Amino acid sequence: MVFGLFASRGGKIINSKKVCRGAISRAPAAEKTGKAVYIRKIYTNFAESKTKMLTKIITEDNIQNAKKLINRSQRMVIVTHTSPDGDALGSSLGLWHFLSGLGKNVRVVVPDNYPAYYKWLPGTDKIIIAEWMQKYASELIASADLIFCLDFNELRRTACLENLVKESKARKILIDHHLNPAQFCDIAISHPDMSSTSELIFRFICRMGMFEYVSEPCAECIYTGMMTDTGAFTFNSSRPDIFFIVSELLQTGIDKDAIYSKVYNQYSVGRVRLQGYVLYEKMKLYDDFHTSLITLSLEEHQRFNVQKGDTEGFVNIPLSMGNIIFSGFIREDKDMIKISLRSKGDFPCNRFATEIFGGGGHLNAAGGEFYGTLEDAVAKFEEGLEKFKELLKK
Q1: What CATH code is assigned to 60-264?
Q2: Strand 6-9 relative to strand 12-15: parallel, antiparallel, unpaired?
């Protein structure tokens, strides 16, 4: 039985209306009328219910052009940004499961390692980490005939993969939800108003009428990306479409409570102690600006044996205080200062990130990088508070 606008046959995405007609034409004459009515009713009910409940964000031209590239490509690579987070991994693995289900040869290549609490995601054992396997990653990208670029808006965000992707002769498809994407792909599916790139992957699959290829492992990955990029659906997640998508993912059999626990209830003792330390010793309040700032030096990283991902989420904690609308987290890394920004309400984190640190992001979640000392980064942050004081003092 075939649902949706398109189906798959031998790795190719085809029009399911044709499949329905083919099934009817092969039926005995006496059964044709009944089969036609039955199949048409199934097709109509399914397609109409999905279409009515899920708004069509991705254009038909992008869907048709992407479908052509998928059909004629055999060696595909999915790349995402450095320091992959839940959405980067969820969208990449979700798409990987989908394309693998079509019989495609596809690999996921990430620039560097990712937090241990994402390593349960189905398919992570197949991910190529370029910093550990540079030669193999280079070969995969060089031999690809189609590259999907997920969850980043400019190539520099892929770090060691930047030149490899730039120099590749493969056709490229961007699927992303960050503002102001650079022009480096043949097809750009860019929608900054979406909750996550993982949401866009679900929409991408459904717009091709291929929901039946969203397996339980695929759904787990997509749900994880949506959950983590919205703070477990606490910000940028008020559109009805989001919860329609969640309901569809749940129907595949995923356990959302177990997913939450695997991501948020697997911290190490060191991480929990570090959280207590930064809140008690390292959180500074700017009462006049309704702002909080947490800083963490490289020496403090080493003292608490900080592992990749251990500081994720710290920036959100001060927003639980009623009088705080803007929270910053400035962390010293080996070769740069990492800036994370979060807000409540309508304070524009993305504007602050862009104008003060040359970064970017979304209304309530943004970030950037700073090259200098930790002290200079803090001074820059405080200058930004003065610049944005009218919005902060509302």
Answers
A1: 3.90.1640.10
A2: antiparallel
